[in-house]
Amino acid sequence: GKLDRGTSSSSNADDDVFHPLGSNRETIIARFISCGFSMSNLDAASLRKAVAKVACTRRLSAKEPFDEHAALALNLDCYAVACAFGGSNNDGDVRCLLPWLDQSLNNSSSTIKIATIADSSQDKLVGDLYGRIYTHLYNKYPAIRKMVKSALKADLMADTTNDSSAIQNRFRARGGEFWIAIDMESSEVVGCIGVRQRKTKECEDQDDKGGPSSPFSVVEYEVQRLAVDDKHRGKGIGKRLLYAVYEYSLRQGILEKKKKKKGVSVKLLAVTPEALVNANNLYNAFGFIKEESFEGGLTMNVYCKTTMI
Q1: What Pfam family does this protein match (any one) (predicted)?
Q2: pLDDT-derived band of residue 101, with 50, 70 and 90 as boundaries?
Q3: N or C end: fewer C-beta atoms under 10 angstroms in the chain?
Q4: Over the chain, what is the mean pLDDT?
């Protein structure tokens, strides 16, 4: 709506466009995705960071500090700026509009591409990657060797008699998808990740004040087979692979919401050995919460990230 002296007048515009985006990052991302944007073309920053960077870029500075600076900084920290772009935007234009970005918004300078797995030749490359990256842990953790061998004989097993990807077919049959990270210069698969749907259940959210309950659906997905080549660690590949899974789960949740015409909670789960320090750190940095740990030949940590749509 249009603001006038502290009051708001109604607008005939689409509610999906002219509407408060949300009070947290996950809600804002979900709204952008529901409008057709990709997570690779989204960015958000605190308003203080955005203003400070713009002021620095434009060489704007106060002649002397004053008390209002502190008050302004605290106030700006209560807000954020979120931007979404189409995939065809020029990187220079994006950086001009968003000077606070530390790197290219769409990673156009990177030689690593994230894509769904395409054929049986890539199945073999995934098997080779997954079979070698954990070998240094086999002696200390025999259970990891067993887990890898089991994966290679099950959902990561290649089928050379067919041109299509057997890995993709298996994950899609379970309501999921499988992605790979490809080095475009060498055509080498340097990372992979999969997701499958676990279950959908119906719940009711009881009003704290005793009002009527609100029905909603909980859609659970599980991250599987996350792996990044040791030679390519530290390039943000694992984070980009997780973004692919997160965006996929949100899109499925949005479809569920449109179909059932009620709220949907997307619950993304991940189970990883505590011995895989980098994987645990990645889940924590991505906003997953560790729910529990259990013993299965070695200590396994269960992480969860929930987004209400």
Answers
A1: Acetyltransf_7
A2: low
A3: N
A4: 82
Q: pLDDT tens digits for 122-141?
A: 999 999 999 999 999 999 99
By residue count, the chain amounts to 309
Any idea what the CATH number is for the domain that residue 208 is in? Answer: 3.40.630.30
- Residue 262, CA distances (Å) to 23, 210, 216, 217, 256 in order: 20, 20, 6, 8, 9
| Range(s) of the domain holding residue 221 | 112-308
Question: Quick check: 297 and 146 in contact, CB under 8 A?
Answer: yes
Domain edge (last residue) among 31, 64, 97:
97
Q: Are strands 188-205 and 214-228 parallel, antiparallel or unpaired?
A: antiparallel
Angle (nearest 5°) at CA 267 between 253 and 27: 60
H/E stretch holding 83: strand 80-84
- Cα–Cα distances in angstroms (integers) from residue 184 to residues 112, 123, 240, in the given order: 6, 17, 16
pLDDT (0 to 100) of residue 2? 41
Of 97, 122, 143, the domain-final residue: 97
Question: Phi and psi of 303, rounded to 5°?
Answer: -110, 155
